[in-house]
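ok so i was messing around last nite and threw this chain in just to see what happens. nothing serious, just curious
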Amino acid sequence: MSFWALPVFGLQMVLVQVAFKRYAMIRATYRQTIRALSRVTEVGGYTETGHARRVCDISLAVGREMGMAENDLLNLEYAALMHDIGQLSLDDPIPGGATVVAAPYQQRQIADKGADVIVETGVLDEVAHIVRHIPDPYRRPQEVADKSIPLASRIIRAVNAFDDLVGGSLEGSRRFEALERLRLGMVYDFDPKVVETLSRIVERNTSFAM
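result:
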């Protein structure tokens, strides 16, 4: 490397560092905005306080244990935080915001409306795709598992159902009953690998029930 190449190389490194810092700031801004949006349903009385945060935290733990890549985890985080944003379209809120007890057509409406809102950002199409597929069952009767459903959607579907059943309860019996209900739904509703991963995580991390 020549003497004159050193300053040029140094300038390139500075530009790279600036670019990384700017990217980090953009990601931080996105995360702050999305976390704020996720609380709109709570403030409006559509979902329980802390639901989106809990679903996000547990979903990320499941995603990491299942070996998801960093960028996929970021999309999972955003989708988990905004998975209930479509509830704002409902004329009558679901009791407790628990979509696990909602009719399939309501679950579909919530997902589609939420995905449509996310698409409007113009930069989160993959997140919208994940949210849109959350209501899709793991497989339908007399059919094989639908591999077109994103793993992130399958994770959020199971974790959301778990938190709808447990909420902020610290009771071990409620966690056990919720996991048993999810296991019973592994035939059609929930991905068995996701449910088993979720079970392991919940059993060794009691803080996730807070």
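not much to say yet. The domain at 39-209 is CATH 1.10.3210.10 (Hypothetical protein af1432).
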